Amino acid sequence: MTDLPPGEPAPPLAPPRSAGQSALAGVFDLDAQLTPAEREWQQRARRFAHDRILPTIDDDYENAYFRRELVAELGAAGFLGMHLEGYGCAGASAVAYGAVCLELEAADSSWRTFVSVQGSLAMTAIALFGSDEQKRDWLPRMATGEVIGCFALTEPDGGSDPAAMHTRAVRDGGDWVITGTKRWIGLASIAGVAVVWAQTDDGVRGFLVPTETPGFVATPIEGKLAMRASIQCDIRLDAVRVPDSLRLPGAVGLRGPFACLNEARFGIIWGAMGSARTCLEAALDRSVSRHVFGKSIGAFQLTQDKLASMLLEYQKGVLLALHIGRQADAGGLDVTQLSVGKLNNVREAIAIAGAARSILGGDGITNAFPVMRHLANLEAVRTYEGTDEIHALVIGRALTGESAFH
């Protein structure tokens, strides 16, 4: 690194941060970019994360414990299905929903994931493709958290190729009989209803399967080193019989599950930046409190270079999320942009978390700091709702007009 050119004035020093002041104050402030209504949602989520998630999340992660009592509280706060209209849902803007996802994931990915599975996947499937009776029956109870939903699409042999799913639904009189297996299904063991996607003679269709139906078995996956405060399951469907009234009438082909996945990807674009912010703040706080060689590590050029690079990628990621949110609210969102956002923001959040760990030194691998928890969770987020490779190919297809999937 070099000195300033001769005669060029040095930039003014930033004033010292006061106790309790945001680590990023005066450098970048998302709050100023939000409307009053969006900011109210954001602040509500920030308070919820601070008061209800953070006090126990380290223990919950360590003990692989899902704190179910928070579900009703999330419903009471209006976060479940908040982007949907009617049926007890808030009808909030896309940007407001994104800001909530960012604040929840700043505490832990598990709770943004819960809101995504419940609202963006299960409830959105019913809202977009369900009958009026199905919407009236399920959505109000799911909005309050009385009923938890899950979204059963991924299978053991290939999450990235849902067109090749093996689960089948066969018509038998007025019923459907569903047989197959699903894997990595969030919330399945505590859900009251599963949105199950299955092949039929007429292509992929969606079904609402009450989880007490005989033949439906959900088993939590053990041994996870990420998303430990959340639940993901294997599902076995052994000749599960449901009436035709529980088929989603508007879901025809893969456009059904893909529409729901797009909603979930939107939440991830924002949520990943919440994890990134927490890691950046932890590194920044440590950089001014830890002293070596007679001064804080934040006074060294290499540390400041790391922090500056982390801030750049965080700020760009948040502004990308905001841009995509504004496009969604204006009704002009190109779904390729969801792949741009998911690929960039999760990848950069992982890089920010890794840089934060390096600034924290050896202590960074302990639970005295949240960084390794976020880093592990982000590796899971990187995989679900489309891997890096899948999103790169979506972008490549848009650029070239050529599909590399087959």
From TrEMBL:
This protein's record includes keyword Transit peptide: yes
Pfam families: Acyl-CoA_dh_1, Acyl-CoA_dh_M, Acyl-CoA_dh_N
Annotated EC: 1.3.8.6
Keywords: FAD, Flavoprotein, Oxidoreductase, Transit peptide
Keyword presence, Flavoprotein: yes
SUPFAM superfamilies: Acyl-CoA dehydrogenase C-terminal domain-like, Acyl-CoA dehydrogenase NM domain-like
Domain of life per record: Bacteria
Family, per entry: Belongs to the acyl-CoA dehydrogenase family.
The protein, known as: glutaryl-CoA dehydrogenase (ETF)
Annotated organism of origin: Herbiconiux daphne
Upper classification of the organism: Bacteria, Bacillati, Actinomycetota, Actinomycetes, Micrococcales
